[in-house]
Fold this protein.
Amino acid sequence: MGSALDNIFNSYAGGSIFKNKSVLQINYTPETIPHRNSQIEAVASILAPALKGERVSNLFLYGKTGSGKTLSVQYVTKEILKRVTDAGGDNLRVIYINCKLKKVADTEYRILAEIISSLGESVPATGLPTDAVYSKFIEIIERKKQLILIVMDEVDQAVKKISDSFLYNLTRLNSELKNAQISLVGISNNLTFMDNIDPRVRSSLGEEEIVFPPYNALQLQDILRERAEGAFVEGVLDEGVFAKCAAFAAREHGDARRALDLLRVAAELAEREHSKKLTMEFIDKANQKIEKDKMLDIIENEPRQHQLILYSILNLTNKEDKNEIFTGQVYNKYQEFCQKTKVEVLTQRRVSDIIAEFDMLGLINVDVVSRGRMGRTREIKLMVPENLQPKAKEILETALNI
Ligand SMILES: Nc1ncnc2c1ncn2[C@@H]1O[C@H](COP(=O)(O)OP(=O)(O)O)[C@@H](O)[C@H]1O
Ligand SMILES: [Mg+2]
């Protein structure tokens, strides 16, 4: 066994095409940020008063995923903090909250608790009335004259879970404060987020707004080229690799994350096959792999009821003729599994709606077909590729405890 592992590890160490793989990791902070100069400068000029601990306008940033919002804001706040610290100042606190993380932003209480813990203090995980947590927060920040800059990344996710009242409460706190001041930076991947929130919140959170447009394919190539420089051994990349990754990523919406993922996954596949070069074929394979992972990810993160319905469809697909699944059958199966897992049964109407959602997600394909005298029905076809179905089933069984 030992020598078998020796073989694996030695060939891995020897044949690596990577110089430093972490450069391609999503959370790696690159040294340069091409094609975001104007956005970065706009953010910097709005946040500049923070250098003196003065209140800055609330700022709202939006743009599709992978357009460099998180990276740019973190870059600017880091630069500001560096300058404040170098000058010996300590009247600025930057608090970064990722509202997408579970257990961080699903209640107003949790968000506040998270903010308070970033300030080095703590409140009990549950139990206090929300008002008391606000009082505690005010007490902590009022100890000195300072600016508390709260960055709420993916703030739309929190609003979806809690409603926008917490944003209103936060922006209103300033009127109660004597020493400290609070400014908010909201970031959203959802372009229409601001249209649907309370007008009072909109006007106060959106004092300033900056749009991050998606990158085009050429810009994505530049980004990839810069990141690849630190990541790969020289000469291992085939001509055209950047263009291909960029083209794939631009097809969706100019997503830099997708472009980087493609390059990294392709390189990992190449390495696993002991290839000395990263050739174009690996980009195609990487694209397939990422699509698959995305599908499994969706399945894993669906709500329980949705998972039960999907599990019913999967089960029917395995047993029966693939093209013959009807809504009624799914509903029967679904009821069976509800009983098994002791989950409340939704109405057929609601189940139909959820099935329509699966269609939009690309998990299934729904066709309305006529069955002669029996009227029209909806025929369901599972779109999860066959080789992925066992894994999908396993994920659902774990999640549902079946
Ligand atoms: N201009 C750029 N230069 C280098 N890397 C970038 C650039 N824009 C985005 N990235 C990288 O792409 C990924 C997604 O960027 P991110 O800022 O998280 O996007 P968003 O927050 O808009 O979804 C991150 O890994 C980030 O480092
Ligand atoms: Mg982001």
